[in-house]
Amino acid sequence: MRRRQVLVAGAAAAVLLGTGCAQAAPAATTALPSATQVAASAAAAGAAGVWGRAIAVPGLAALNTGRDADVLSVSCAAPGSCAAGGFYQSHGKHGFVVSESNGRWRRAIEVPGLKVLHKGGSQVSEVSCASPGYCAAGGYYGNHSRNPYDVTTGRGFVAVERNGRWHRAVEVPGLGALNAGGNAEVSSVSCASRGYCAAVGFYTDSGGHQQGFVAVEQSGVWGKAAGLPGLGALNTGGSAEVGSVSCASPGNCAAGGFYDTRAAGAVGHQQAFVVSQTGGSWGTAQQVAGNLTGPGGDAGVDTVSCGSPGNCAAGGQFSDASGEDQAFVISEVNGTWAGARAVAGTRSCCGGAEVTSVSCASAGNCAAGGQFDYGGYNAAFLVNEKNGAWGKLMYVPGLNAVSRDAYLSSVSCASAGNCAAGGDYDQGVFVAIEKNGAWGKQTTVPGRPVSGVNSVSCASARSCVAGGSYVGPGPGYGLQGFVTQ
Predict the structure, then answer these.
(1) How far apart are CA 14 and CA 29, in angstroms?
(2) Alpha-carbon span 227 to 184, nearest angstrom
(3) For residue 166, how many C-alpha atoms fall within 13 Å in the half-sphere facing its CB?
(4) Which is deepest, 24, 45, 224, 247, by most CB within 10 Å?
């Protein structure tokens, strides 16, 4: 089972701020539109709303002397109040954060304190904002190597923004004592309110086994990292990770990931699990029900989202009896997780089907997306849950007309039936907007050639932000990070 990763395709046009309004149809050809076409497209959209332009992350170019940067995660607490994070290269890999206030992006900064902590590379893997100016970030930093590019011997960190100011990164409390094997990472963070966040990931124990952990911030103070109840007993093969967490309110969260059942002299494989927190107490991690995998097959939860306490959704992939990877979704209703179901229509002929992102606006109203293989190419898909019932798969509208190979990286829902999705395809990048339950055609906005859209976040039905990377100016420049304005 592969860990979740950002999937990117070829070069493309930049940008992407969704307003939740009408969008121009995709270009009929794969060539970048001319300036005249751009103006016409903007004018046509102007009556109902305009896609904002992508901008280079302010200040990131000055930091990114190694010419390789990327925005991996964005989160918006309110329209015009967001945060983003990722990495840049400058004699090694460095994690950065950047905040938006009143609609204006400030300058990117290396996460305060990381320069002192890390002896190898560092990265912000995810950010989460509970309210304007109050966010959290998590990732990893190298700790045991003189090689500034080494990220194989690291530790997990968290950093918080309070009242618009980012504070010093700290190793997750207690994680150092658990991480005797020398490699740990924060994979996901989620903030339910000011001062209440959760962080999850993995560490390596003294026996060299990978284990999952969770840590919770309460009243602005991070508690010690601890294993999830029951996960250690499930993880007989010694390879587990809590890959995603989502908190609907303080003390009410859900998480998911994978564990390994391989044991000496026995046939095992990776299994998907989910676990819920209720009233501040974590329940017991449980295998995702539904007989997902065939003999020797693998399964894992890649993404979790909660619409309200006890009402969440998760998605990922599993290997069927023929060994092909398939996409699945699973729902929690009033604190009880149902059995997983394969996303109808995504059965892959050649492997590679996966739900990469899920977002829930309210209980029983979610959207998910991903991609599946059809004859050597990938098709991006979307699927909605409405009033507790998952619907049928649909291709990203209009994308098939311009692409044979597409990946969907991120979905975000501001309210039921009002969501945004983003990703990339063989000729560019795309976003799509769902308005009042109907997904519109995918849209690209011309600009610099973009490597990919990694993350989308919607603060309201008419305000969404995207982030990722674009190809910098000049030959051999490499990648630079962008956010939408």
Answers:
(1) 16
(2) 13
(3) 30
(4) 247
Lowest mean pLDDT among 222-226, 289-293, 347-351, 430-434: 347-351
| 451 in any annotated domain | yes
Query: In angstroms, rounded to a whole number, what is the distance separating the alpha carbons of residues 198 and 252?
Result: 10
Average pLDDT score, the chain: 84
Q: Residue 174: pLDDT above 50?
A: yes
The answer, yes or no, to whether residue 230 has pLDDT greater than 90, is yes
C-alpha angle with apex 468: 34 to 160, nearest 5 degrees?
Answer: 145
Amino acid identity, position 58 = P
**Cross-strand pairs, 78:** 81
Contact 142, 118 (CB under 8 A): yes
- DSSP states of 126-169: EEEEEETTEEEEEEEEE-S-S-TT--SSEEEEEEEEETTEEPPP
- State both tokens at 291: 């007989």
Q: What is the pLDDT of residue 23?
A: 28
d(CA 34, CA 439): 27
Nearest one of 446, 440, 395 to 27, comparing CA atoms: 446
Tell me what pLDDT residue 50 has. 52
- Residue 16: inside a domain, yes or no? yes
Please, is 441 exposed, middle or buried when counting C-beta atoms within 10 Å of its C-beta (0-12, 13-18, 19+)? middle
Map tokens 């190898």 to a residue: 120
pLDDT digits (tens, 9 = 90+) for 277-326: 999 999 999 999 875 666 567 899 999 999 999 999 999 998 877 777 88
Domain that residue 34 falls in: 1-39+51-67+398-485
Task: Check pLDDT > 90 for residue 226.
Answer: yes
Residue 439 in domain: yes
Kindly give the pairing relationship between strand 134-142 and strand 463-471: unpaired
The residue behind tokens 């840049």 is 88
Q: Is 231 helix (H, G, I), strand (E, B) or coil?
A: helix
What is the pTM for the complete model shown? 0.87
| Residue whose pair of structure tokens reads 């992102």 in the numeric block | 357
**Poorest-confidence range of 143-152, 252-261, 433-442?**
143-152
CA count, 13 A, side-chain hemisphere, 228: 37
Instruction: Give the per-residue pLDDT at 149.
Output: 46
Choose among 458, 432, 420: nearest CA to 80: 458
Gap between the Cα atoms of 405 and 446, Å rounded: 19
Rounded Cα gap, residues 216 and 251, in angstroms: 9
Q: Strand 154-162 to strand 170-171: parallel, antiparallel, or no bridges (unpaired)?
A: antiparallel
Tokens of 335: 């604190």
- Residue 348 inside a domain? The answer is no
- Based on the structure, what is the number of domains in the chain? 1
